[in-house]
Amino acid sequence: MAATRRPGRNHLFVPGPTNIPDRVMRAMMVQSEDHRSVDFPSLTKPLFEDTKKVFGSTEGTIFLFPASGTGIWESALTNTLARGDKVLTARYGQFSHLWIDMAQRLGLDVIVQEEEWGTGAKADKIEEALRADKDHQIKAVMVVHNETATGVTSNIGAVRKAIDAAGHPAMLFVDGVSSIGSLPFYADEWKVDCAIAGSQKGLMLPAGLGVICVSQKALKAAEGQSGRNDRLARVYFDWEDHKKQNPAGYFPYTPPLPLLYGLREALACLFEEGLENVYHRHAVLGEATRQAVAAWGLKTCAKSPEWNSDTVTAILAPEGVDAAKIIKHAYVRYNLALGAGLSQVAGKVFRIGHVGDLNELSLLGAIAGAEMSLLDNGVKVTPGSGVAAASSYLRENPLSKS
């Protein structure tokens, strides 16, 4: 029996991929063209400069790869490090775990600080480990800024202060896949050496364009790997090939043309709203979601307010309730896509993503759908309570500062 058509739009509220603005979709509807033509740099050269603004950088170098954020993880590690190099990181969610796994599989010596899921990177522990590294064997500190599995944001500014307080020369690598373009990010101020982003979250594009903002320090580290027998293998993600082609507006291989046009339009959306307004909007929508969770009598996965993410809220299902059933019912019955629990929190949490192109009414639709699915699955919440709490907060807190 064929599936029946679902009227209306699918309500996408996972923490990525996110909703794509109509004007961005239209911008990507382009005919193929010669990416070696004399006209092509008029599209690409401004992108390298404009994209830096979203990273909070004027000094960094942007590389654009046909890849997801996972590919950009690999780009950061393989260009700057050698086999056996020590890196320091914390594990507090599925994505920090996966980055650790990649580093180990590449042949790096990974020092892992295990943290409780629902918390994040502890700056004091990082400082302590770096102070103990008298010979400066640790070459990089890796931090996932926003851990979507648990709805946790770590304080990158505090991590930078910890590195400086220890007087340690380690590079700082930051996964900003679910934060850059949505949460405040200041690559230059925080002296982030490799800042990693993907197109499918705050940049409001389909997946497939990986972006990295690289400091001068990281570029020099990459140059220092040249000719070493123990350098990490890299071909597709080699920065050197891009450095030769990008200044003239070209790429070492075929670029994802529609995504480049989409990026230009997405950046225009962000700049027209104003980045400070973008950050404020996400903060308001994040708090409105948490107000709804509190009204339901439920708890977030984040252990305390200091860890709250403004791009995704991971909500603990009541004891004995399978969160996966809440998610499936919301999708099948109400055409609402919620984020699933991953790894340690699989079946224990459902996630509401509030990242990218959305406003008050968009979010209230997701909260209403989640509330109905909770009720349908026997969770005793007061009907309308989450929507009422969120709408009250939103009425009192405009999304724009200006």
TrEMBL record:
**Domain (Aminotransferase class V): residue spans on this chain:** 12-326
**Record-linked CDD domains:** AGAT_like (cd06451)
The answer to whether keyword Metal-binding applies is no
Q: Which UniProt keywords apply?
A: Aminotransferase, Pyridoxal phosphate, Transferase
Pfam annotation, one family? Aminotran_5
Q: Which cofactor does it need?
A: pyridoxal 5'-phosphate
Q: Does the keyword Transferase apply?
A: yes
Gene Ontology MF annotations: transaminase activity
Record-linked InterPro entries: Aminotrans_V_dom, Aminotrans_V_PyrdxlP_BS, PyrdxlP-dep_Trfase, PyrdxlP-dep_Trfase_major, PyrdxlP-dep_Trfase_small, SP_NH2Trfase/AEP_transaminase
Q: Which family does it belong to?
A: Belongs to the class-V pyridoxal-phosphate-dependent aminotransferase family.
Protein name as annotated: Aminotransferase class V-fold PLP-dependent enzyme
The record lists the organism as: Methylorubrum rhodesianum
